[in-house]
Amino acid sequence: MRVSFLGLGVMGYPMAGHLKSSGHKVTVFNRTTSKAKEWVDQHGGGYEVSIEAACSGADIVFACVGNDNDIDAVASAAFKAMKPGALFIDHTTASAVMARHLAKQAHTYNLRFIDAPVSGGQAGAEQGQLTIMCGGAPKDFSEAEPILLSYAKYCGLIGNVGSGQLAKMVNQVAIAGLVQGLSEALDFGVRSGLDMEKVLPAIKGGAAGSWQMSNRGTTMLVGEFEFGFAVDWMRKDLAMIIEEAERIGATLEVTRLVDTFYAEVQRQGGGRWDTSSLIQRLKP
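RESULT FIELD:
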C-alpha cells in the first residue's frame, strides 16, 4: 500500500522502517527534516518537508507524535490533504477526548480514523514486538491489522474510537504501581544485605514476576536508566489518566502517589531517564 508516517521519534522511526521492510511504499515526514533524510538513507522510500505533501495520495497515514496538542495540529493538516476514504491511524498516546474529536473531524473530510496507542517501548518498536490497542470501526481495523502486525506481536480492537487510548491508560496505571512496588522490593533486599542478583532469578518465575522485573530488575540495581520510556512522557500520560479518572469517578490512590514520586525524579534531573528510575529516590 501507499502509506505515510508522520513523526520519526524513538518509536516512529523504527515503526516506519518495518512498514518499508514489509513492502509498502512509505513516505515520511518529521519536523526536523534531517531526521527524515536520515530515515530515507537507511530504509529507502521518500520524505516530504510538509505534512500535506507527505499525506497526498496515501491509502493510510500513520502518526506518532508527542501529546494532544501535537496530534491535533498534525492530524488537522493531514486531513486537508488526504484523499477521500483514506485511513488515519494515530499511534500517539493521547486522551480519549482527543481521539473522539479527531474522529469527528476526519469524518467531515470523508476519512476514517483509528486510535492505536502502543506499548513495548523503544526496544519493542525496534524489534517489531509492540502491543497495539485500537479503537475504531471493525471494518477499518480488519483492513489495518495485517499492516500493523509488521511491527507488533499483538494488535487488538478494544472498542469504538477512544477505546484504544483508554486501554493504554489502564496499561500505564498498572505499570506505575508495579514499578514502585519493584523499586521498594529491590531497595529492601539491598538494605537487608541480600545478593539481589541471586534473588531476582529465584522470584521472577513466580507470582512476583513481571516484564519489569525480568527486563529492568538488574539495570535498576546498578542505576542504569539511559534507555526506554522517559519519566517526562510517563508524567504526561499520568496527567491525562488522572484527569480522565476525575471525569469518570475512578479512584487512583496509588497512581496519584507514584506521580508525585516521578516528580521527585524529575527534580533530580531524571526527566529523560527510563521509568524504572523510581528506585533512585529510595537510595541514600
